């Protein structure tokens, strides 16, 4: 059985490798999640110990706090004309570079920033690899609270099932999980997702859905850490 220690080692290795792709003077998209955290920490070390210069555009409040604590100056899309590199994780990846993201509820900001970057690099351990999307999790939907009942009905008409995401006990407030934009998250599961790009479009056409967690072939490079032998591969 894969241990937490080997999983964390794989995450750290790919996070560091992605950080080393950054060149001094670049603006970087800073993703959200445990694997990307290793990249942010390494970028901070490169600033402190190697004198490199980076600016970061975070995809969530948590990524911003981590970046600031590691000495990375924070900017917004108002401040820059270009993001040279975005580093982010994923929850599922199929063999065609289609992703599901959003277990942390940050997929709206992630999709904006990752899509805007010149190069979008995904960092994952090999437990995230699937034959097709939707095998291990539903598709996160960021939904305007008013629209939740209507969105649930629309997903049912698409032969899907929805579940309101609830904050874990002791994490934030009690009740529905709330995104950085103040919206709710529904997790929509489907028997099959045969065409991720078409599914992404269909979900985003539902009134009240701000964004969904399907990232169809947006990634330029996927760096995968093995949880068994520590090797690193790319896709």
Structure class: alpha/beta
Provide the residue-averaged pLDDT: 96
Q: How would you write the strand order of the largest sheet?
A: 2-1-3-6-12-13
> How does the overall form come out from the CA principal axes?
globular
What does this structure look like?
The chain has 235 residues and is of the alpha/beta class. The longest helix is centred in the first third of the chain and has 17 residues, at 34-50. Strand 4 (92-93) and strand 5 (98-100) form a beta hairpin. The model has no long low-confidence stretch (mean pLDDT 96). The protein is built from six helices and 13 strands. The protein is 30% helix and 23% strand. It is globular, with a radius of gyration of 18 Å. The strands form three sheets. Strands 2-1-3-6-12-13 form a six-stranded mixed beta sheet, with helices on both faces. The chain has a four-stranded antiparallel beta sheet with strand order 8-9-7-10. The protein has a three-stranded antiparallel beta sheet with strand order 4-5-11, covered by helices on one side. Helix 1 crosses helix 2 (34-50). It has two domains: 4-130 and 217-234, Rossmann fold (3-Layer(aba) Sandwich), CATH 3.40.50; 139-211, ACT domain (Alpha-Beta Plaits, 2-Layer Sandwich).
